[in-house]
Amino acid sequence: MLSSSYYKFIMWQGLDLAYNYFRRLDPRLLANLPSLRRLDLSGNALEVVAPDAFQNTHALEHINFSRNALTNLHPATFRNLLGLFELDLGWNRLRELVPSLPPGLEYLYASRNQLTALPLTPRLALPALRLLDLTGNGIQSIVPGSMSAMVQLRWLLLGENALQTLEDGSLSGLARLETLDLHNNRLLTLGDRCLRDVPQLKQLNLHGNRLERLGTQHLKDNVHLTHLDLSHNQLNNFEHNALSSNRYSTRTYPY
Length: 255
Hints:
Blueprint: H1 4-11, E1 14-16, E2 24-25, E3 38-40, E4 48-49, E5 62-64, E6 86-88, E7 107-109, E8 117-118, E9 131-133, E10 141-142, E11 155-157, E12 165-166, E13 179-181, E14 189-190, E15 203-205, E16 227-229, E17 251-253
Parallel strand pairs: 1-3, 2-4, 3-5, 5-6, 6-7, 7-9, 8-10, 9-11, 11-13, 12-14, 13-15, 15-16, 16-17
């Protein structure tokens, strides 16, 4: 005969509380759910997540806090969730991301917040991160080297921010990056060597910026590039051999 704890494990691997009216998350809500793997509190009115909210739910792998009213999170909030795989903080009011996120985190969504700069925090070292979505914030600059600890990153989504330039070294450490989305920023220039640090790049979206020039050096080392969107910029020509280093058939959208 199976024990009651077995049934609890089966029944409470996921808890969906989306689109209710929770304003605060305290540990008592999850106190009796030690086997919980997924928690969805999206679309509530959360303003506060207690630092010890997850003290009894160390098995959590997926948390969705999107579409709430969070302005900050305590550094200890996720510290003990060593199995946390995916965290969605999109559509809140965060001005910075919580430091001390679990090092095993692979998917981090923080679109539509109020973030203004990279690095997001001095301690955002996420060596297992594969996807970082920062779409629709107010990011104005990327400090060179600020993402160098994200050595597994494959997707970097930075569309709809306020970037004016991408400096040489801004993408250093991202040697495995495959998709870079910079659509609808305010980019006027690209550093001649800014894309040299992403040799595995396959998709580059520069739609809706203010670029006037694509130089010979910009894509020199991006031999795996297959999709390049340059639509809605201010280009009037490519420099000679600007795409000559690409060994594949690159699809471009220059107009």
